[in-house]
User: What shape does this take?
Amino acid sequence: MSEHMSRSSAWSRYRFLTAHAFRMEWRQKHGLAGLLLFALASVYACYQVAGGRASSETWNALAWVVLMFSAFNAVAKPWPEDSEAMRKYLKTALRPGEWILARMTFYSAILSALSVLIFLSFTLFLGSEHFNPRQGLSFLLGLECTALAFASLLSVLSAISSRAGAGFGLTAVLGLPLIIPIVLISTRYGTDILKGILWIDTAHHLLFLAALTGGIGALGFILFPYLWRD
Amino acid sequence: MKNTLWKALGILLLAYVFAITFLVPLGPGLLEFQNVDRVISSATENRSVPEYQLIGYGTHWDEEPDALQVFVKSKSQLAALEVIRVDDATHATIGLTLPYSLPAKSWNVLINHPVDGTLLLENGLFLSDRFIDAQATWPAPSFVEHPGNLGFHFPYQPRIIETIRNLMLHVPLWFTMFLLMGIGFVSSIKLLSNPRNELDDQRAEASVQVGLWFGVLGLLTGSLWARFTWGAWWVDDPQLNGALVTVLVYSGYMVLRQAVEDERLRSRLSAVYNLFAFVILVILLMVLPRFSESLHPGKGGNPGFNTYDLNSALRAVFYPAIVGWMLLGIWMYLVTLRMKRVNRQIELLP
Amino acid sequence: MMFILLQTNPLEGWFIGSGKAYVVVGVACVILIGMAWWLLRAENRLSRMEKLLNSKKNAPSD
Assistant: This one.
């Protein structure tokens, strides 16, 4: 691993790191399985809570709540650099910016897949009578954009809290207030879509989400090196 | 000497602000123009007309009862109504001396009085059972806007009424919080560029700590205001959500500081988080409310009061209030900072 | 509702007219002066402590 990284360009190191993150995740399958189980179980719990007949408002609200908590669950797993020795070693082999970008990419992929899964299981359990296929696709697009925003924010926050040595509790404390703005925009988008408002008339919410994702990602990329310093 | 002067200035300004804010009376305004479901005989028209009651707020109609004039206005159409009698300073009985066919349904009510000046009640009169003839034109009665003859007073604004005084507390408190969080933001940037400077870390912590107090006070005064003007202690509104989230995010900063043992690491981690927090503050309180519908004053664009909402009487208190609160905030910040430094020095004593 | 309240009980009357406004201003100013006094006292104490700490720090080098 170290030879490969010291000789290659930043781009190929980034690709290698991302692929490596997926490989590691695939090797210990209990992480992914746990995530799937958490998402499905919470959808089923929502189905029970809503009594199988969710109104369109309930449908909307529950979908975002499930996505939010699944996202927190996804970033809860510790990463290799959380150990002091591993971080010291990684610092010699690569730049911290590449690491956080790889981490964001990894979480973005995981959360995107998770949001598709949540959407499908929601339509399975809580029904899809509130929207036509077009609206469904627009809603899914909103979920995807939100998943990306969650991924960029939560990767930075989980990096901060793991560096603080305080574990997942701190991620939740720091993350929940910061995630509210994203949730506010997303729920407004979802409500508009389910109300039957044309996609183009509410698409500015997605633009906000994209700008937020980009801004947080850039800030994380600039600031992450300070977290790794000793 | 210079060092105590600005502190005294801050305290004096705030004392002035409190005194003026609570002691200056509110200007007169019109509360309601209501149908009392009776008819009354009109002296000028020799017929029975519907009786209306005009209710003012802080008006002085009993001082010169004969001089009270009442008009209704819709676009360019103006008509005078008959003042049957003035009951007391704030109540008058009006005869609705209007013909059956009217050019519009909805009318603004205007009054003229030598003491109170010209007052307006927007959409004060709504007549749904009349024949509407959009072409009808009336001879315009003579109407001259009257400046009034009152001492120093705050302007009457519908729905806000006496709570306009809260402007001197609520808004400067938030401004002061912005200033303190700005100090924290700059200190955090300086700390990250030069991690050895312990002072910047203490600056960031002290400013956020004091700024949080101002934020909480801003939330409380805002909640009070919302109860009076919107009828609920809390409403779902972009500006209010933003304010609450900002306070929560900065509380997270204090939690993060408690969670880390190692000092170097703590200063760095909290500086990184502080930068995130400030960016979120700017987005939530300055950017997002401009793009979404908000009940908050200046809705649909500007999250603050518009300049034309602030007349000279309000300005005479509002600007000193901003300076006074900011000076107090900076003083509190400096004392907190010195306390942290002394505590630190004591910790380092052998 | 608000109108009825205002008619029977004009704020001008019960706030400024009844002298309650003076109580509010008085309380606000007492809080303000109390705060200024506390801050000044804290500053004095801090100056004393800083002087003491500096003299301790400088003591070995004298």
About this structure: Residues 153 and 216 of chain A are 6 Å apart (CA to CA). The radius of gyration of chain A is 19 Å. Chain A touches chain B through 27 residues (CB under 8 Å).
